[in-house]
Amino acid sequence: MLAAVYSVLLVFLSGVVYSRLTAESAAWEQPECIRRGTLFTARFILKMAADLVYLVTGGCGFLGEQIVELLTKEDHISEVRIFDTLESESVKAFATATKVTVIKGDITEYSQLLEAMKGVHVVVHTAALLDYLDLEPFWKMKSVNVGGTENVIEACCAQSVPYLLYTSSISALGPNAQLESMLRGTEDTKYNGEPVLPYGKTKAMAEKLVLKANGEQLANGNKLVTCVIRPSNIYGEKLKEIQNTYVATKARKGCLTSLEPEGVQNNFTYVGNVAWMHVLAARQLQLKPEVLGGQLYYSYDDTPVRQRCLLMRNLFLEVDPTVRLGSCVPYWKMCLFIHIHGLISFLVKPFRTIKPILTKQLLNVIVTSLSYETDKATRHFEYSPRYSWEETKSRVSQWLKSIKDN
């Protein structure tokens, strides 16, 4: 008797699930069981909904590429759309062999976003104008990072895209104008003041927009669910900074220069682990919206070092055992160098443009501690690093060796 009742209930449940998944072809209706947080049923629905479409803005970028590659390995995703102003050769080749569609577009153009989001279920918004050296005017950075994010949110609402995951930056936190440190903080640690970097200011504005948009009504009557991941000092293969530092270190006969005074602590996270955190968060945002919705998460893994020079040395030692740490360049010397460089740039401006190597604001970021210790992502969506510290070093060293050989 119980078996018969169970069979009837199972058939009924299957019919309900099927009707919900096929009710709307243009925009996936957020199931009632997901909105109510019934985790088992939500997982069952996600397993059946093997035709989900993800859109990744900035999918050709350093982090975006890694996110896209991991998303293509998810069974429940039928298509990954890249929305970017650029189309790298590696992504173009990757797209021809996988379920990736590359759409060339600009997030500042609302109509382009609107078209790209047709039939999309999840948006991972990584696109941003990144500038630490004051090469871009603030209005342009704000137009992309803030205005573009506004467009993404509005397009999600108009096209009834129910889930939005935003990639922020530790720069959105600080350091502030007073260069106050934060040591071993968490997502709940209060840190007052406006970020000193213009880029950080725009990311802080965009963060607020995304978190505020959680719960906004979509065109189909459902609600938008949003969350934010705030990475800190992402590193990995293909990062130009690592390549340039390695070349400069080799030119100085293996001596690695440090700008960070002793005691400065900052978090560093491998790009593959940051990408994995995005994949897990995007998945669990659908299964546990009542937990992840409106939340902010720091990125983390088991990278043991807290100073950039020590990170670089550990990575370079895998390629060249003779690499050693030099003495730290005093803060006043770096300020003097920046001032002289700025003066020379001003004098030769009528004839040529010299890009700054370092700015006073960026130097202040380098010498200020902003570290945290948290397990929030683990508690909320079962995150654990995909790549260990040993694997990370191996992957980066193999990349450096390939550059060296070429």
TrEMBL record:
Pfam families: 3Beta_HSD. Residues 1-19 form the signal peptide. Keywords: Oxidoreductase, Signal. One of its GO terms (biological process) is steroid biosynthetic process. The keyword Oxidoreductase applies. One of its GO terms (molecular function) is oxidoreductase activity, acting on the CH-OH group of donors, NAD or NADP as acceptor. Residues 55-318 form the 3-beta hydroxysteroid dehydrogenase/isomerase domain. InterPro entries: 3Beta_OHSteriod_DH/Estase, Lipid_A_modif_metabolic_enz, NAD(P)-bd_dom_sf. The keyword Signal applies. It comes from the Eukaryota. Belongs to the 3-beta-HSD family. This is 3-beta hydroxysteroid dehydrogenase/isomerase domain-containing protein. It comes from Pleurodeles waltl (Iberian ribbed newt).
